[in-house]
């Protein structure tokens, strides 16, 4: 447990908002599991009806893993369960951060850098546009990568 920021890794789902009137689709980060939206330029905080801070007695907190490889594996597992555009990246964690052998559960989090996984982008999304939109919205470094996510 610490009050200093810790850097972990995560996988996100890419939410796609398609404005009417033929404008280009806009993308944003969503949680892979919950229907939670990661608002640009705002810390995401743990939401639990019982705990303000992540509790050992509960499963609450913002989840993160310790390595890029683990984040890719997370993305891979998610993609197998349901095909969806995915992003991995580093995430800053602060407030109460519970540490486990495989990862963290944090009170607060915000992306530090993002990697757009080219292979799982739907055809209608231009990868360059996705990179630019994420960079502009979340104010973080965004790169494109081509990992093999095949099951
Ligand atoms: Zn809880």
Number of strands: 8
Largest sheet: 8 strands, mixed
Strand content: 35-45%
The value of Rg in angstroms is 15 Å
Q: How many domain modules? A: 1
What is the percent of helical residues? 10-25%
Low-confidence sequence ranges: none
Global shape = globular
Explain what the structure shows:
The protein is α+β, with helices and mostly antiparallel strands and 151 residues long. It has one domain. It has two helices and eight strands; from the N terminus they run E-E-E-E-E-H-E-E-H-E. Strands 1, 2, 3, 4, 5, 6, 7 and 8 form an eight-stranded mixed sheet that branches. The termini are far apart. The mean pLDDT is 89. The structure holds zinc ion (ZN). Zinc ion is lined by residues 48, 50-51, 55, 58, 60.
Write a compact overview of the structure shown.
Helices cover 17% and strands 39% of the residues.
Features:
151 residues, alpha+beta, 8-stranded mixed beta sheet, 2 helices, globular, binds zinc ion
Chart the SSEs and their pairings.
Blueprint: E1 6-17, E2 26-30, E3 37-38, E4 44-45, E5 62-65, H1 68-81, E6 86-99, E7 103-117, H2 127-138, E8 141-145
Parallel strand pairs: 7-8
Antiparallel strand pairs: 1-2, 1-6, 2-3, 4-7, 5-7, 6-7
The structure holds zinc ion.
């Amino acid at each position: 447990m610490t009050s200093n920021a810790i850097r972990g890794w995560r996988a996100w789902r890419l939410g796609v908002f398609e404005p009417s009137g033929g404008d280009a689709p806009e993308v944003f980060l969503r949680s892979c599991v919950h229907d939670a939206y990661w608002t640009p330029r705002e810390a995401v905080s743990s939401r639990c009806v019982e705990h303000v801070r992540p509790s050992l007695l509960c499963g609450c907190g913002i989840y993160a893993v310790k390595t890029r490889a683990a984040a890719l594996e997370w993305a891979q597992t998610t993609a197998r369960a349901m095909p969806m555009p995915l992003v991995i990246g580093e995430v800053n964690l602060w407030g109460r951060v519970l540490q486990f052998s495989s990862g963290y559960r944090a009170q607060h989090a915000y992306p530090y850098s993002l990697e757009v996984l080219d292979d799982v982008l739907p055809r209608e999304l231009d990868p360059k546009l996705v990179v630019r939109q994420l960079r502009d919205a979340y104010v973080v470094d965004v790169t494109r990568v081509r990992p093999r996510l095949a099951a």
